[in-house]
Structures are given as structure tokens and as C-alpha cells.
Amino acid sequence: IKHKRGKNSNTPPSPPGLPLIGNLHQLGRHTHRSLCSLSHRYGPLMLLHFGRVPVLIVSSAEVARDVLKTHDRVFASRPRSKIFEKLLYDRHDVASAPYGEYWRQMKSVCVLHLFSNKMVRSFREVREEEISLMMEKIRRSSSLPVNLSKILMSLTNDVICRVALGRKYGGETDFQELMERLSKLLGTFSIGSYVPWLSWVDWIHGLDGQLDKTANDLDENDFVDVLLAIQREKSVGFEIDRVSVKAIVLNVFVGGTETSYTLMEWAMTELLRHPKCMNRLQEEVRKICKGKSSVSEEDIQELKYLKAVIKETMRLHPPLPLMIPHDSTQDVRLGDYHIPAGTQVLMNAWAIGREAATWGPDAENFRPERHLDLSVDYQGQSFELIPFGAGRRICPAISFAVVLNEIVLANLLHRFDWRLPAESIENQTGIAESTGTSVHCKFPLYVIASSTT
Ligand code: HEM
Prior knowledge:
The structure is a single chain. The chain has 453 residues and is an alpha+beta fold. Helix content is 51%, strand content 8%. It has 21 helices and nine strands. It has a four-stranded mixed β-sheet with strand order 1-2-7-4. Helix 7 (124-140) runs antiparallel to helix 8, helix 15 packs antiparallel against helix 17 (304-316) and helix 15 packs across helix 20. The termini are far apart.
């Protein structure tokens, strides 16, 4: 440390790098883990070089507060990247757009129009329908091992598809079924249309109900509808063009699917590794939803332990352990250090969630109870727990993601008892991580579900 600081005591400590590649060789397959180990030697604010690019690594809640709160505006941009430019419409989406007026407008469309509480509530039926299809799929497995990872992934995918585009694009033939229903209804004779005082006959035959449902199914107000309405009415004070619409929708898929299903998969993995926590959660859910066939969204508010389990899962397994890179737009001082404009920043949410100084000596253990009397939350106010980020660039879809996770987990535990197939206990209960930006379990989670009803 002394050696590296010698040249310029104003820059944060850096591990020694190699010519041309800088510190890239030190990153390993699980970058968040390698960076966490380095931070134990070099401190919670390190300066690395990825090739020639200076990259700050933040590994403590205290420094995270400095970056995402005190100097939020300076660090609110995103670095340029060929990948973002190629895949995300030349950075016209929300997540990779540089800080500025365009990003501000697009983010406000997300916050006010796409992920508002009202919008999240309006997709309740989509969640309920997809969950009940999933439960049926699991029930049909009749105590044989099921690939729960795959089931959770297709559930999330179907929910996001319906929310974003109004219909599913999976292997299921939902859309076909809807079209068949539509043509059948178009050919149905409605006596009430001809003889008004016989309208009750249509009602008795269920025609009215079917018409309502089909009209609704055809006209779910999805994200594309909302964006097109904004485009038409120019109601947000700026022009939103075709590219912006496509880029936002792409963000919803890229940002939404993998992260959400990863969280469910980790929660189930941790619960299977900790049967006491699984039992406690099942007792809570079954007590509050006694006599009901499924858990409803109203019930969720009372499920305190469920919320603690989800927080604890996000603390130990943030789906995006290094969040999305930030970039500074001005020179700034962080503590004693000078940080020039154009420095990239990686926030190690994974390391921050495991800091012993905050979480105590058992920081590495899965113990949801710790959250029962803590006020630490993941909404961007507590820098000890930042799975969704904080500050200007915070994830705009927190409630969208959390509601889906809560209701899925609650229903899985309400309806089924879970155990691992004997032959795969070792693989399944380890906490082996996949590689990649969003980190999920290395092995798909195979489990046996026995129905409690
Ligand atoms: C458990 C689920 C999720 C997690 C853990 C998560 C996490 C994150 C994180 C860490 C960031 C970056 C924050 C920063 O740079 O400071 C982010 C940004 C973002 N997320 Fe999420 N997210 C989740 C679900 C979703 C969903 C469901 C959607 C959309 C449907 C979504 C859309 C976005 C968008 C558009 C951004 C970019 C915001 C910006 O750059 O201003 N996320 N998310």
C-alpha cells in the first residue's frame, strides 16, 4: 500500500498492477469475491485499473453513502461501453444512458408511469394467474424432483412478458387460446342483443362474463400501451420516439427477468439449507392464511418473517453484486482522496452486505431474524443494504420486483413441503455461484414438493 501510495498520496490505495492490463488479472471468475478479498487488504475505497481505465471499488456502507448520497450527482453517470452501445440502442435505454436530460426524462417515465404503485397493483391479476399455473405445474410433478430454477425463470419471464407486451411469448399457447376464444365468441348468438328483455339469458349462460374477460385479456394495459400513449399525447413534455420505447422495453426484460428469478432461487436455496428458517416461515404463512387455498397480496403485509427472509437473501446474494457501473462527471474529493472526472465506480453490494463491522461476527450466516428488529431497508436509505442501489440511479422497479418475490415465495411455502432429492443434497445446498453480471446458483435447484392439501 505504501509503495503504491508513494507516487501520489492523493489517490486511493491500489493493488500493484501489470503493464497494459492493470489489475485485470486479479479479478477471477467471481469478480465480487476477488474485489472483496482485495478490499480486506487495501481498504473500502480502492483504485484499480482495468487496462488503462481507472476504476474505483467501493466496499463499505460508509463510502457507499459518500458516493451515492453526498456526491450522488457527480457519480450519477454511466461509463461508455461498446456492448451497451450495440445492444441498448446506442444507450437510449434508462440503465445505460449517460446522466443528463434524456436519462432524467426516461427515468421519470419509468418511475411515474411504468413502475408506480398504481401500475404495480394493476398487474395483480397477471401475478395471480401465473402463480396459479406454476403451482399446478408443481403439483403435477407428484413428488418427483422438479427443476425449480427453470420453473421460477419461466414464471418471471411470463409475468414480465405480459406486463411489458400484454401477452406471453413462451412455449405455451396462450395467445392461440385467446384467439380461439375470440373467434368462438364472435360466432356466438347473443339473444340479449336482439331481445333486450331476455338479456338475463346471456348472463345465465355466462356469455357476459366471457365477453368481459376476453375483452380484458385482449386489452391488458401493458407497458407498450403506456409508452405509446405518452408518445401520442406528448404528455410528459418531451418527445419519446420509437427507439426510446424499444429501449425501455428491452430494459424491462434485461433488468427484470434474471434479477427477479435469481432472488427467488437464492431464497429457496437458503431455506432448504436452513430447515429451521423454512419451518418458521411455513408456520407464519400457514397460520395467517389458514383455511385459504392460496396466499393473497393482502396477506403479505402481515408476513413479517417472509419480509425478513427476502431481506436476508438480498443481503447475502444481491442479484447484481456489483450493481451497474457508475461514472464520475467532475473532479471530486472522497475523504482524503482526489478523484478525477471520468473515473468508473463499482459498488460492491455483495461485500457491503457481508461487512462484519455492520452485520456482526455472524455476517456470513443466513439469519433472517436479524432483520426483525432492525430498521435497515433496501429502498436506498440504508447504505448497509443496497441490492437495488441508491441515489439518482436507484432501481425504479423495487416494489414491482419485491411484490412478485413475496407472493411467489409465500405461495410456494403455503402449499408445499419441500425437500431435496437424497442424491443431490451436496450439490444443491452448496452456495456455488454462477459467473456473469447477475449471479445465480451454479446448479439448477432440483427439489421434491409434496402438496399439503
Ligand atoms: C430483485 C430484482 C432486482 C434487483 C436486485 C435490481 C437491482 C438493480 C440495481 C442494483 C440497479 C443499479 C442501481 C445503480 O446503479 O445505482 C438497477 C437499475 C435498474 N433496474 Fe433493477 N433490479 C431488480 C429488478 C428490476 C426490474 C423487475 C426491472 C424492470 C422491470 C428493473 C429495471 C431497472 C432499470 C431500468 C434500472 C436502471 C436505472 C437507472 O440507471 O437510472 N429492475 N436495478
